[in-house]
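Pilot study result, target chain (308 residues):
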Amino acid sequence: MPFQQGSARRRQRTVLLVGIVLLLAALVLAVVLASLLTHGKHEDSPKMLKWKDRGTTKNLQEVVLGRCYNYITERYPELGDKDCLKIWESLKDAFIYKNPCNITAEDYQPLMDLASHHIPCNKSLFWSKTNDLVHRYTKSNQNFLTLEDTLLGYMADKISWCGDPSTPGINYESCPKRSECESNPSSVFWKMASKMFAEAACGVVQVMLNGSIEAGAFRSSSIFGSIEVFNLNPDKVSEVHIWLMRDIGGPQSESCSGHSIQRLKNILEERNFKIICEDNYRPVQLLQCVHNPDHTDCRLCTNSTAVP
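Predicted structure:
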């Protein structure tokens, strides 16, 4: 009997040890499987989308905040009640962690509401294909404002931004071009800002176009031709002055009687605007001549009769 009892106890210990070994093996196997699954998930995590245009501007937050503070303190102190931090947050919320081809007007509406401000009558200056010239002119003549001279345009001018569904939610490597998708962060922003700028215009408005472009100075596909011209309010705008500027020494591809300008005039006339068009508006041409003083296009008229 003692032998049988001892043998039974040994069998119990053996079974217990085997159970413990099997339990430990199961635990080790579970840890290994968990590690493999975690590693697999890491490998399969979403990658940053790749596009053809430049990525988000480095230090975007600092750039936007710096421009905002500079605008409301140095350029237009009367806008000192604007909250630059809220403006930045609303811009970031419009695109961060979002597919950059699925941006909507609703995404930007809070930003538009926060950053919009009054545009004085007779100061709105629109443009197409005259970027450098028109902004040199507004810097030298404070009587006019382009979209880029407003708070929204000043903050966003020449910078880039877009989001991505994967971490960190902002793509610093690439952003989509308009040809890749129209509902990208930049295109939607500028369309909304341009529409709002046109709607705010009052009194006499000006538009500077390029008369040296072979395809025509007025293009229906441009921001001005597709958005701004149709959002001018005939009840607020009394006249539209067209300044058709030729590059100094460049071809005079079109004049105020040209085909594309006539199309623009037809659009404006149908909307009951009074129109004045001037070839090579002299104040702007003088600014062009600062860089080309000896060119024949810059010579003053010498045919006037001297007063005795």
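One observation from the pilot: The chain has one domain: 48-298. A full batch analysis is planned for the follow-on phase.
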